[in-house]
Specification:
2 helices; alpha+beta; 27% strand; 140 residues; 4 strands
Length: 140
């Protein structure tokens, strides 16, 4: 009679347990990578929308001080743009006698915030400076 060699039931159970553990670890890392790719996609879309808005600001209509807001992609991304006069911190630190009044173009600071996700969700913010057009002075 020949002696047959094979795997015992215990060896098969241990092999399946190791295989299940390896697959669990692999799928866990893949789902984490998929989540990171999704977050990167959301962030990239927000940046592209923001770049488009900043590039178009002041082109169709003259730039004016104040706040405006809106959304993109049926409310998925919400934005708020604030235009205010630019104040140079270094110039405000100078004594009043050294400060000179210059008429002409002035700078405006644009602050754009883009939000997405549930509640406050994620947020990105950009700041940019733009030249405001000269406003004609009243005749004297």
């Amino acid at each position: 009679m020949k002696h047959q060699r094979g795997y015992s039931l215990l060896e098969v159970i241990v092999a399946f347990a190791l295989l299940a553990l390896a697959l669990t670890l692999l799928l866990g890392s893949l789902s984490g990578a998929a989540r990171q790719v999704h977050n990167a996609d959301l962030r990239t879309r927000a940046m592209l929308h923001a770049q488009s808005l900043l590039a178009a600001t002041g082109i169709g209509q003259p730039l004016q001080e104040g706040r405006s807001q809106g959304d993109w992609e049926d409310g998925r991304y919400r934005w708020e743009l604030q235009v205010e006069p630019y104040v140079d911190a270094r110039a405000s630190a100078l004594p009043q006698a050294a400060a000179t009044t210059v008429s002409g173009p002035t700078l405006a600071q644009l602050t754009l915030q883009v939000r997405w996700g549930e509640g406050n969700g994620e947020r990105l913010q950009w700041r940019s400076l733009r030249l405001l057009p000269n406003t004609p002075e009243a005749p004297r």
